[in-house]
Amino acid sequence: MDKLFFNCNMFDGTTATLTENAWFVVDEAGRISNQGTGKYPDVADRTDLQGKFVMPGLINAHTHIMMNPITNKTEYLTEAEATVQALHNLELLLKSGQTYVRDCGCAFNVDIQLANFYREGRVFDFKMPEIMPSGRPLSMTGGHGDFTEGHDGCTTWGYLTDSPDEVRKAVRQAFKLGAQNIKVMATGGIMSATDQVDDTELSLEELKMAVAEAHSKHMTVAAHAEGRAGIHNAILAGVDSIEHGSYLSDEDIAAMKEQGTFLVTTLIAAWTIPEYGEGKLPQYMLDKAKAFINDYFENIGKAIRAGVKIAFGTDAGTPFNRFEEAPYELQLLVENGATNFQALQAAGKFSSELLGIEADYGTLEPGKFADFLVLDADPLADVKAVQQKDKQVYKKGQRMF
């Protein structure tokens, strides 16, 4: 049965304008079948949105659903622990307005399994967004992905790959299991004790192999890349997105714009560590974060002003980076050079393009799924409107919260 939603101010995600006194119809499949302003069609099932503001659901292109941002436990996790944590986090993501997420590295391939359950309608009573899974990330031995997992230390978080041949095999294994994106660790990171942020990890040849193998199977490649040399290698290799981009050079900003490489900013992940971690986190994490955060934010601002395609991602699950606080990333984007419209498009249109789901998600247009939020205030005037705790969240026309 069709559903009519009327009496709202709509931001459809395509232009920096609101459509006043808007209405739209959602069909049985959960897609928008018709929309307009003023006089609306005679549909029996109707919802008066009382003049509130409607916008597309947020698409978070960088999450870690297996992680607990408060305990910060990263090693010796069991598969059961990772699964239970993921189900809890997925509900938090959806309630805060994130209707589609990409997981960027999950032990035991829990994200792949849950994504399959969702597609098969086997999530029981759990409320969750749709998931684009990456499964286990690819890391060099001792790199930013070599975390010991399992109660008895039986495995590692990532596939440990130390040659192009090992990379090829890992990508094929991920493909076999159902990954839709390949996460590669091009540099060191904040949370790994054995390396520095600017360490170059997977080599250029290994990154090129990951890209060639993934692209031949219609998968995307996301590169964790913080140090300058590793970022440069990842761009040369042809990855689809640079995750973080802390030490982006002017040269690589220009190359990303020319190639159409996306930048997934994750500003909130850097902000939370010094903000909340003093006395609670290992000193190496605090030292790394404090040493690079100013350069990081400055470089992201340069990329935004240069016109690099920005996608929305938070790295949720990292220390004190709560899943429900993801809308704060929009505020940080604006504070570092984006307009309200650019920040909102990063979380909708551009994230959908990065994930390859733009035919169905990202904007509120006829033919696309009706994933939308209902807010009390105008997000185009102030993106902090999306931080509303009691916002209405709809997934395919069904109210979830």
TrEMBL record:
Keywords noted in UniProt: Coiled coil, Hydrolase
Family matches, as InterPro entries: Amidohydro-rel, Metal-dep_hydrolase_composite, Metal_Hydrolase, Metallo-dep_Hydrolase, OTAase-like
Keyword Metal-binding: no
Superkingdom of origin organism: Bacteria
Coiled-coil intervals: 190-217
Domain Amidohydrolase-related, first and last residues per copy: 53-398
MF terms in GO: hydrolase activity, acting on carbon-nitrogen (but not peptide) bonds
PANTHER family named in the record: ALPHA-D-RIBOSE 1-METHYLPHOSPHONATE 5-TRIPHOSPHATE DIPHOSPHATASE
Protein name in UniProt: Imidazolonepropionase related amidohydrolase
